[in-house]
Write a structure and sequence with these properties.
This protein is an alpha+beta fold and 547 residues long. It has helices spanning 11-23, 28-45, 48-64, 68-84, 88-104, 108-124, 128-144, 148-169, 178-194, 198-214, 218-234, 238-251, 262-274, 278-295, 298-315, 318-375, 385-402, 416-423, 425-442, 467-484, 514-531; strands spanning 406-413, 448-454, 457-463, 499-506, 535-539. A hairpin with a 2-residue loop joins β2 (448-454) and β3. α7 (128-144) packs antiparallel against α8 (148-169), α7 (128-144) runs parallel beside α9 (178-194) and α11 runs antiparallel to α12 (238-251). The radius of gyration is 37 Å and the shape is elongated.
């Protein structure tokens, strides 16, 4: 299937696409209507690529409108269609987004499956920025369950690719934003920090800070601070760590930056608890609690309750501890229920997609068979008259453009009327099939195309072949039929079924036409039949009409 091209549509379609591209980032809720409108148009056109694009964009809008569950379902629906229409970048991004959503819901295995699929697509199609981005996501997933070595391996793969891009292009941008590279070095620092490899952690944080100067980010600046606080502490620089923790206490009041770096802050609160900074711990926890209530995430709520349980236990707050453990159980049950519902919806969607895929494949096969039947001669299996004339037109045009020789051969079965009259039409049909088999075997040669012109008449096209080669192929065809030794006692040309063959070879000029080639080949055939039959002749110039 041809690659989907967003710029190849009519004005009406392009207007809708422009509205989607301009609105999905700034006004995702309002843009959903345009994606539905585009999908309806795609269904009306029977355009799978356009439909896939519309569904993919609606998934983007829903995710940005804080509806990750429905966004994930739409990404799942769009993915096989994106792959079928070779929209590789969107397919890889869909996999990445499904991984991010599944990770945010606590479905680690599903997240990893999605990331690995996206990684495969990005590697196969040299999508270097997505290769970096997805490796970072995989590393973050490993960080989430404290597998620091695998996390570091993933981040290092991303770093190697980033540096390769910088060397080849002279800069990370425009393929990869400075902020993304800064986030990568923060993540590498997080791995080293967790393993208390202080010198390497400091080196990575320093790189991240240099990159942030080129492209400032409030979330990344905050994230850099929380790791600097930890690095200084593990380096024994307690006073510097304490100053940074105080600075963070003031900054954390701005909860708008927290969703982007939730896992980093979770690790920071764990650090605060370990080092006994309980006031700071509770300060951060309260801000996170407010943020999670805003986005209404069961998974994130449960993670916060887990932190509270540890806090209440450490502080000896028995009543609060019991209430929190009860809430933790309720959230766990609710999360499991949501997961089961999501799984059922996902399975139902997969079954529907498989059914649609089977239906599309069946329709494609039927269309292919229909096209084949419309282009093939039912009796011999050769190209029919319509198809062989199409091939002649295309070949003539190509030979004109590239100054290549072209030959057309007309041939028929000698004394075929006597076959039908004496052996019957069934035998006649069988002989035509035998001739057709001989002609089909000739098509193994490059540049040779054969077809049935009508009745016992056949045509062969020779593209970009020398006149000597055309003569050799005419002799080969004659011999192939002779070797079959099909008896024809009513022929005066041969005791066996034979052919009369006439070919016209010429390097076409601008004024030459298919009709001219057919007419000249027919003249040569007439000359062979008048002279002897059971023979061939190849002319390289127009024959004069004989009296």
């Amino acid at each position: 299937m041809a690659e989907f091209n967003i710029t190849s549509y009519d004005n009406e379609t392009v207007k809708i696409i422009d509205a989607i591209e301009q609105g999905k980032g700034m006004q995702p809720v309002n843009t959903v209507k345009y994606t539905k409108q585009l999908q309806d148009l795609a269904l009306e056109k029977g355009d799978l690529g356009l439909e896939a694009y519309a569904i993919y964009c609606r998934a983007q809008c829903l995710y940005l409108a804080h509806d990750p569950e429905n966004a994930s379902l739409l990404y799942s629906k769009a993915l096989p269609m994106l792959l079928d229409t070779e929209q590789w970048e969107r397919a890889a991004r869909a996999c990445s987004m499904m991984g991010i959503i599944n990770s945010g819901q606590g479905s680690v295995a599903q997240a990893m499956d999605s990331y690995l699929k996206g990684l495969e697509i990005s590697q196969d199609h040299k999508l270097h920025d997505l290769y970096v981005f997805i490796n970072c996501n995989i590393g973050t997933l490993y960080l989430g369950f404290s597998d620091f070595q695998n996390a570091l391996d993933s981040f290092k793969r991303a770093e190697i690719k980033c540096e390769e891009i910088r060397r080849n292009e002279g800069s990370y941008e425009p393929l990869i934003a400075y902020q993304e590279v800064a986030a990568l070095y923060i993540n590498i620092a997080a791995c080293y920090c967790s393993e208390k490899t202080v010198d390497r952690a400091k080196e990575c944080i320093h790189k991240a800070m240099e990159l942030q100067r080129k492209s400032p980010s409030k979330a990344l600046s905050f994230c850099t601070l929380i790791y600097r606080a930890q690095i200084h502490y593990y380096a024994g620089e307690i006073s510097q760590s304490d100053k940074l923790i105080e600075q963070i206490d003031d900054m954390v009041k701005d909860i708008s930056i927290l969703p982007d770096i939730f896992d980093d802050i979770i690790r920071y609160t764990t650090f605060l608890q370990k080092v006994g900074k309980m006031d700071s711990f509770w300060n951060v926890l309260e801000r996170m609690d407010a943020m999670v209530r805003q986005i209404d995430s069961v998974y994130l709520s449960r993670r916060l309750v887990e932190l509270k349980i540890r806090y209440y236990k450490q502080m000896g707050m028995g009543n609060e501890y019991r209430l929190s453990t009860s809430l933790y159980y309720e959230l766990t049950m609710k999360m499991e229920q949501n997961r089961q519902e999501s799984f059922r919806e996902s399975m139902a969607l997969r079954l529907k997609l498989e059914e649609e895929k089977r239906s599309r494949k069946q329709a494609q096969n039927e269309a292919k068979n229909l096209r084949s039947r419309s282009e093939r001669d039912a009796l011999t299996g050769l190209n029919n008259r319509f198809r062989i004339m199409q091939i002649l037109e295309d070949s003539l045009q190509e030979c004109k453009e590239q100054t290549l020789p072209l030959a057309v051969e007309m041939l028929d079965v000698d004394f075929f009327k006597q076959v039908n009259d004496n052996y019957g039409h069934q035998t006649g049909d069988e002989i035509l099939r035998e001739v057709g088999d001989c002609l089909k075997s000739m098509q193994r040669h490059s540049g040779v195309y054969a077809g049935r012109y009508g009745g016992d008449e056949f045509i062969i096209i020779y593209k970009n072949l020398s006149i000597e080669t055309v003569k050799a192929y005419c002799e080969e065809l004659k011999q192939k039929l002779y070797d079959k030794k099909i008896e024809h006692e009513y022929s005066s040309a041969s005791p066996y079924i034979s052919l009369s063959q006439g070919a016209y070879w010429h390097v076409p000029g601008e004024e030459d036409t298919c009709g001219m080639y057919m007419e000249e080949a027919d003249k040569v055939l007439y000359r062979v039949k008048k002279k002897s039959r059971n023979d061939y002749y190849v002319a390289d110039q127009a024959l004069k009409e004989e009296p």
